[in-house]
């Protein structure tokens, strides 16, 4: 089995040490904290991820700093 290809959030700090990373893992999306990559990631279905990111994009769900 291949390792997930993790991507950092486009909103992460320039140093890249305080961000969320995601990876596509077949039928789901894996989410982890870049400061704790050894911990098991949280996984969500692709539909839930799409709805979540759409809500962030359209402002109906706001991300707090």
Describe the structure.
This protein has 65 residues and is an alpha+beta fold. It has one helix at 46-58, and strands spanning 7-8, 20-25, 28-33, 42-45. A 4-stranded antiparallel β-sheet has the order 1-2-3-4.
Give the secondary structure arrangement, pairings included.
Elements: E1 7-8, E2 20-25, E3 28-33, E4 42-45, H1 46-58
Antiparallel strand pairs: 1-2, 2-3, 3-4
Order of neighbouring strands in the sheet with most strands: 1-2-3-4
Uncertain residue segments: none
What's the β-strand tally?
A: 4
Strand content: 25-35%
Radius of gyration: 12 Å
End-to-end separation: 36 Å
**Percent range of helical residues:** 10-25%
For the sheet with most strands, the description reads:
4 strands, antiparallel
Count of alpha/pi helices? 1
Can you tell me the overall shape?
flat
Rounded mean pLDDT is 85
Order of helices and strands: EEEEH
Provide a concise account of the structure shown:
This protein is of the alpha+beta class. It has one helix spanning 46-58; strands at 7-8, 20-25, 28-33, 42-45.
């Amino acid at each position: 089995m291949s390792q997930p290809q993790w991507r950092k959030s486009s909103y992460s700090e320039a140093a890249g040490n305080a961000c969320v990373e995601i990876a596509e893992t077949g039928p789901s999306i894996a989410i982890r904290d870049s400061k704790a990559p050894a911990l098991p990631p949280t996984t969500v279905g692709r539909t839930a991820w799409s709805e979540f990111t759409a809500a962030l994009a359209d402002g109906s769900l706001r991300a707090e700093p």
